[in-house]
From TrEMBL:
Keyword field contains Ribosomal protein: no
UniProt KW keywords: Coiled coil
Region described as Disordered: 366-388
Keyword Coiled coil belongs to the record: yes
Protein name: Mce related protein
Comp. bias intervals (Polar residues): 368-380
Coiled coil: 181-208
Pfam families on file: MlaD
Organism: Planctopirus ephydatiae
Length: 388
C-alpha cells in the first residue's frame, strides 16, 4: 500500500467520523427544531416550582414544545412561563396548563386542551395550575403515618386490655361464657358482612373510576369548569348592569313621584272636594229619578196612564185636521196677493187713475227681454186716508 492510498483512506475515515458525529449531534441535540416553525404562548402561574428553561411541554404525554423562559410577574404577584409550541400542533384557545413534578423534583408542563374550535395564536396568554410539592406530600404522609401509628398503638393497648379481661373471665368463670361467645360470633358475622359490602363498594368505585368513559367525562367536566366560571362571571356582570339600570330607573321614578308627594295634601283635598261634589250630583240625580218615578210624574203618567196618551194622540190628530183646514186659506191668500200684485187698483184710487196691464214686473221683464222701463208715477194718496 502506497502512502497516497493510506492518506486517502485516513481522510475517508475522518470524513465518515465527522458525518457520524454531526448526525449524532443533530439527533441528540434536536437541532432540527431550529428549522421547524413554532409559536410562543405565555402561561400564568401562582407558583412554578420544578419548571426551568428547556423543560418539556407535553400533550397527552407527548412532547410538543419546550419552556423558553421563566420570569416573575410583579403585577399579578405570580410567575409567567414562556413556552414554544410546534406550529403543527393546534391547541384550542381555552386550553390550560398544569405543572407536573416527579418525586425527584423534575417537572414539565402538561397542556390540558379545551373544547373551543378556535386555535391558540402566537402571543396568547392562558392560565396554569401549579402542582403540589412531592416533599410536602411526603411530609403530610409522614404526619398522617405518625398519627396512624399512635392510633394503632392505642388500639393495641385496648386489645391487650380486652384480652386481659377475657383471660380473667375465663379463669374466674364469671358471666355466661356461651352467651359472650355467641354475641362475639354475631358481631364477627356482622363485621364480615360489613367488610363484604365495603369490598363490593370499593370494587364498584374502582370499576366506575377505571372506566375510560368515566375518566373522559371527569376530564371534560374539569375542563368545562373554567368556561362555567367565565359564564358565571358574565352572568354576574349582566346582573350588576341590570341592578344598576333598575337603580337608575328608581331614581328617575323618585324624581317623578317627589313632586306628587309634595303636592299630595292638595291633591287629597281636591280629590275629597271632587268626591263630595260627585256625591251631591248623585244625590240630585237620585232625587230626580225618584221624582220621575213617582205616580204623579209626567213620565210615569205617560208610561202608566193610557188616557193621557189618548189625549195626546187626539191632539195630534186635531192639529193634523187643523193644518189641512188652513191649506185652503193659505191658497186663497196666495191668490189674493197675486191678484193685488196684478191689479193694485182694487185697493184704492191710485190703481183707478193709472191702471195696470195685469202683468207682474217679472213677466214684463221676460216679455221685453231686458229691464222694465221705469215710469214716474205720481204719488196719490188713497181715498181711504184722511186729508191734512
Amino acid at each position: 500500500m502506497s502512502e497516497r492510498q493510506l492518506q486517502f483512506r485516513v481522510g475517508m475515515m475522518v470524513l465518515v467520523a465527522m458525518a457520524i458525529g454531526v448526525g449524532l449531534l443533530v439527533r441528540a441535540g434536536k437541532l432540527d427544531s431550529y428549522w421547524d416553525e413554532d409559536f410562543s404562548i405565555a402561561i400564568q402561574f401562582e407558583s412554578a416550582g420544578g419548571i426551568y428553561p428547556s423543560a418539556p411541554v407535553r400533550l397527552y404525554g407527548l412532547t410538543i414544545g419546550n419552556v423558553r423562559d421563566v420570569r416573575l410577574d410583579n403585577k399579578r404577584r405570580g410567575v409567567v412561563v414562556i413556552a414554544e409550541i410546534d406550529a403543527k400542533h393546534k391547541l384550542p384557545i381555552d386550553s390550560t396548563a398544569q405543572v407536573a413534578v416527579s418525586l425527584l423534583g423534575e417537572g414539565h408542563l402538561e397542556i390540558i386542551p379545551g373544547l373551543s374550535e378556535e386555535p391558540l395564536k402566537h402571543g396568547a396568554v392562558i392560565s396554569g395550575q401549579a402542582a403540589g410539592d412531592p416533599m410536602a406530600l411526603v411530609a403530610r404522609l409522614e404526619a398522617k403515618t405518625t398519627a396512624t401509628m399512635d392510633s394503632f398503638a392505642a388500639t393495641s393497648k385496648e386489645w391487650g386490655t380486652l384480652a386481659h379481661n377475657v383471660n380473667n373471665l375465663l379463669e374466674t368463670k364469671r358471666g355466661n361464657i356461651d352467651q359472650v361467645i355467641e354475641r362475639a360470633a354475631d358481631s364477627l358475622d356482622q363485621l364480615s358482612l360489613a367488610m363484604k359490602s365495603a369490598t363490593e363498594l370499593i370494587q364498584q368505585a374502582n370499576r366506575i373510576v377505571g372506566d375510560p368513559k368515566t375518566q373522559a367525562a371527569l376530564q371534560q367536566t374539569a375542563q368545562s369548569l373554567p368556561r362555567l366560571v367565565n359564564d358565571t362571571r358574565e352572568t354576574i356582570v349582566v346582573a350588576r348592569t341590570t341592578l344598576e339600570s333598575m337603580q337608575q330607573n328608581l331614581k328617575n321614578l323618585e324624581s317623578v313621584t317627589d313632586p306628587l308627594a309634595k303636592k299630595g295634601n292638595d291633591m287629597i283635598v281636591r280629590l275629597d272636594t271632587s268626591l263630595a261634589n260627585l256625591d251631591r250630583l248623585l244625590a240630585d240625580a237620585s232625587r230626580f229619578v225618584r221624582t220621575l218615578n213617582t205616580q204623579d210624574g209626567t213620565l210615569q203618567k205617560l208610561a202608566a196612564d193610557p188616557q193621557l196618551y189618548d189625549n195626546l194622540n187626539r191632539s195630534a190628530q186635531l192639529v193634523t185636521v187643523l193644518l189641512r183646514g188652513i191649506e185652503p186659506i193659505v191658497q186663497d191668500m196666495r191668490e189674493f196677493s197675486d191678484k193685488v200684485a196684478r191689479r193694485p187698483e182694487i185697493l184704492g184710487v191710485g190703481g183707478a187713475i193709472q191702471p195696470s196691464n195685469g202683468l207682474r214686473d217679472t213677466e214684463l221683464i221676460e216679455q221685453s227681454g231686458g229691464t222694465a222701463p221705469k215710469t214716474q208715477q205720481k204719488s196719490v194718496r188713497p181715498s181711504f186716508l184722511p186729508g191734512r
